[in-house]
């Protein structure tokens, strides 16, 4: 076979500086089937842009565990691309499409990703291996490891996970962690055995337990928000949790069947555009006619405004806000064009 026609594993590493989180993309260069590991909600648009630009057929959205420091975009990417959401089985995440057992594999193109149960940081941590690369989440970090003082963490369990499940890989195996706060991007099994002060190859179980039980780390800043949301694949059923300053049509789709009767979706395009296709159950109030609907708009606790690309919605939002409306969510960075491109349901 021509070498240029053979499948190659394409790998990319992205970083979210606010949470120090790494997100990983892997795909087959020939079939373009791929997956994403540990995506961050605030970076959803970046992820989607990358996937669309390269033409990746996203098959899986994977979380290494139920994160306490950031919210996953698993649900958002699943809705936008049709990919399946994946967690390790012990996580018990009911919204996940796939709960992987230890040793089970996911196929993408000609490649396979193996799940490796590595509890200890939390009771549900799962690492993943493919083609000489280990993705260890928060279990094994660069010159460190995940803390063990919440979410059923256990230093004894983590010690066994690292020494018996990860350190058994060849020394040259590359290790890609879930976080790093010092600008490092990759390590190896050999390096961690030699230089990891918490759990190098000479560390004893007793010594490791003593270190972990005396870390005295502060509570993760976002744990109270992140854990419940991540147990729901990053979806919040309470609209008060949405980011109203950067709301997209993809997020609107996620909550479409959960809208309360006191909430309304408003299409500000022309009646002709509205008749050609609109978001189900939306109300048509064309830009320039909103003054005749003020009492109706005031009667709702929340009003979602959209148009074709976002510009008209932004104009209406500005005008109504100047009149004292504070119940508006403006979808100003996308619109019906994006809704239809994503293949979401259209009412005519």
Question: What's this, in brief?
Answer:
The protein has helices at residues 44-54, 74-81, 155-166, 189-195, 205-213, 223-230, 249-255, 271-276, 294-298, 311-322, 336-341; strands spanning 9-16, 21-28, 33-37, 57-62, 84-88, 98-100, 105-108, 111-117, 126-130, 133-137, 140-141, 144-145, 174-177, 187-188, 263-267, 283-284, 302-306, 328-330.
Characterization of this structure:
The structure is a single chain. By secondary structure, the chain is an alpha/beta fold. It folds into two domains: 3-230, Ribonuclease Z/Hydroxyacylglutathione hydrolase-like (Metallo-beta-lactamase, Chain A, 4-Layer Sandwich); 239-341, Rhodanese-like domain (Oxidized Rhodanese, domain 1), CATH 3.40.250. It is 26% helix and 23% strand. It contains eleven helices and 18 strands. It has helices at 44-54, 74-81, 155-166, 189-195, 205-213, 223-230, 249-255, 271-276, 294-298, 311-322, 336-341, and strands spanning 9-16, 21-28, 33-37, 57-62, 84-88, 98-100, 105-108, 111-117, 126-130, 133-137, 140-141, 144-145, 174-177, 187-188, 263-267, 283-284, 302-306, 328-330. The strands form four sheets. The chain has a six-stranded mixed sheet, covered by helices on one side. Helix 2 (74-81) crosses helix 7 (249-255). The longest helix has 12 residues, at 155-166. It is elongated. The model is unreliable at 237-241 (pLDDT under 50).
Number of strands: 18
CATH architecture of the largest domain: 4-Layer Sandwich
The main sheet comes to: 6 strands, mixed
Report how far apart the termini are: 50 Å
SSE-based structural type: alpha/beta
CATH class of the largest domain: Alpha Beta
The tally of structural domains comes to: 2
Query: How helical, in percent, are the residues?
Result: 25-40%
């Amino acid at each position: 076979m021509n070498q240029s026609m053979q499948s190659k594993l394409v790998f990319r590493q992205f970083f979210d500086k606010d949470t120090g989180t790494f997100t990983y993309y892997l795909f087959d260069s020939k079939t373009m089937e791929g997956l994403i590991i540990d995506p961050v909600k605030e970076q959803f648009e970046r992820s989607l842009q990358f996937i669309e630009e390269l033409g990746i057929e996203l098959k899986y959205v994977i979380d290494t565990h139920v994160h306490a420091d950031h919210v996953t975009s698993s649900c958002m990417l699943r809705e936008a691309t049709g990919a399946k959401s994946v967690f390790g089985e012990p996580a018990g995440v009911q919204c996940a499409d796939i709960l992987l057992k230890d040793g089970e594999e996911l196929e993408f193109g000609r490649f396979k990703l193996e799940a490796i149960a590595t509890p200890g940081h939390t009771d549900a941590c799962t690492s993943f291996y493919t083609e000489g690369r280990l993705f260890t989440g928060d279990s094994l970090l660069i010159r460190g490891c995940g803390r063990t003082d919440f979410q059923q963490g256990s230093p004894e369990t983590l010690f066994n996970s690292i020494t018996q499940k990860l350190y058994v890989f060849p020394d040259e195996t590359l290790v890609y962690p879930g976080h790093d706060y010092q600008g490092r991007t990759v390590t190896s099994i050999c390096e961690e055995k030699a230089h990891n002060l918490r759990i190098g190859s000479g560390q004893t179980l007793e010594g490791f337990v003593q270190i972990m039980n005396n870390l005295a780390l502060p509570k993760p800043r976002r744990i109270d928000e992140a854990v419940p949301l991540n147990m729901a694949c990053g979806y919040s059923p309470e609209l008060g949790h949405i980011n109203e300053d950067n709301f997209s049509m993809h997020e609107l789709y996620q909550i479409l069947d959960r809208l309360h009767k006191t909430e309304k979706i408003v299409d500000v395009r022309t009646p002709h555009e509205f008749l050609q296709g609109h978001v189900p159950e939306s109300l048509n109030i064309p830009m320039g006619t909103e003054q005749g609907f003020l009492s109706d708009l005031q009667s709702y606790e929340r009003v979602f405004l959209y148009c074709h690309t976002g510009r008209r919605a932004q104009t209406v939002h500005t005008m109504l806000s100047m009149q004292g409306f504070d119940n508006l969510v403006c979808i100003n960075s996308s619109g019906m064009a994006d809704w239809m491109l994503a293949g979401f349901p259209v009412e005519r």
